[in-house]
Amino acid sequence: MSDEDLEIDLDDLERRMNGALASLKTEFASLRTGRASASMLEPIMVEAYGQRTPINQVGTVNVPESRMVTINVWDKSMVGAVEKAIRESGLGINPQLNGTIIMLPIPELNEERRRELTKVAAQYAEQARISVRNVRRDGMDQLKKAKAAGMSEDDNKIWSDEVQSLTDAAIVNVDNALELKQEEIMQV
Predict the structure, then answer these.
(1) How confident is the model over 117-147, as pLDDT tens digits?
(2) Domain 3-27+110-186 maps to which CATH number in 1.20.1250.20, 1.10.132.20, 1.50.10.10, 3.30.420.40?
(3) What are the angstrom distances between the C-alpha of 53 and each of 23, 47, 82, 99?
């Protein structure tokens, strides 16, 4: 067995951990901070044509002013499904219908709603940490297989430390992103 078979792909592990962080940032973009943003609707999926579809694939999302988001739904029959998806999303926005256009007025955030949003942000961050730890577990499983295939104890320890170091760095990045988002949400 060659040395290449006994090594693990740290670049792949790091890429997957960074993917968890990128996903977290996308979810954070959906948390509103009192300002209208088209990205706040990105994680919302609509039940359309027998499958779950992103909102931006059933209509045009616009931000005509700082406290308003509009969605011009292309198919009249989808307006109800889009409205339902928004109501069930947990964003705390009450959609208003105007034909095929759904208007989402963004209300001022009160203290209680800000605290709720920081809790949602913390849940998103915990999901990202879980993803990072799952990637770490995959890396450690690869190390176990390599050890069984003949990797030395010393090499195994070195690789294990590398995987742990990647994990620690990714968790710190998640925690930093959470802290920044919570500050942004609580800012009046």
Answers:
(1) 888 889 999 999 999 999 999 999 999 998 8
(2) 1.10.132.20
(3) 17, 6, 10, 21
Rounded alpha-carbon distances, angstroms, from residue 155 to 6, 59, 101: 9, 54, 61
- What distance in Å separates the CA atoms of residue 131 and residue 20, rounded to the nearest whole number? 6
* Percent of the chain topping pLDDT 70: 94
Q: What one-letter code names the amino acid at 119?
A: K
pTM of the model: 0.67
Best CA proximity match to 8, nearest among 167, 151, 176: 151
CA triple 80-83-84, angle to 5 deg: 85
- Of 93, 92, 90, 108, the closest CA to residue 43 belongs to 90
**136 close to 160: Cβ distance less than 8 angstroms:** no
Confirm if 167 and 133 have CB atoms less than 8 A apart.
yes
Distance between CA atoms of residues 127 and 154, nearest Å: 33
Distance CA 101, CA 95 (A): 10
